[in-house]
Amino acid sequence: MLTPDASERALRDYFRQHRIAELRELFQLLGTRSRMSVFRRLKAVGYRSSFNHAGRYYTLADVPQFDRWGLWFHADAGFSRAGTLKDTVVALVDSSAAGMTPNELLALLRLPVANTLSNTLHSVRREARIACHGLDGEQLYISADAQRAKPQRMQRRQALEGAPSAPVAVSEEMVIAILVEALQGAEVLMSAALVASRLTARAVAVTTAQVEQVFARYGLTPVKKTLV
Questions:
Q1: Is the pLDDT of residue 206 over 50?
Q2: Burial of residue 14 (number of CB atoms within 10 Å: 0-12, 13-18, 19+)
Q3: Which of 49, 96, 134, 146 is deepest in the core (most CB within 10 A)?
Q4: DSSP strand E in 109-225: where?
Q5: pTM to 2 decimals?
């Protein structure tokens, strides 16, 4: 096996080029078949495990460039500033201005199987790390802290009740916010309703009708896809 200094150089060079790795690649890189030895070397440098794919992918702590949600993706491997999928879900729900729906969480986490999120939500709710509130027939996940949860529910209710029946003017600042949210890191364009709900979760007051106006202005056509 490589010496500690040689291991650090090898790891930094490898992750600088490839960004992520699986354990089998690290075995070959470091010249060992010992999991304990690999993780000892990774720990000395600082590393993160993916929150998806059962933590199969690894990267160095200083590689991810996290977005506003504390998430970073390379190919289909997702990493979170919070750590595990459970911790990430709790962090997303706690930090959201208006709680999070399952669809919003699926879109943010890019999970291909809805059951994975459903099981995680059930687990962290059972552990009393988040709470669930029924709102207009939809599940809204909110903070377990009652003082934090109350404004989240109010913000969501205001967003739902404030949606106008007819399109209203959209400022240029709102146009930019909508386009950034709709297009960032996405292989396909998400629906206007999902863009509106994601922005609402960040306390950006926007309706589905306003998002549809922006899509129409720029000739954008969302891909129809059922998330749950």
A1: yes
A2: middle
A3: 96
A4: 130-135, 138-143
A5: 0.73
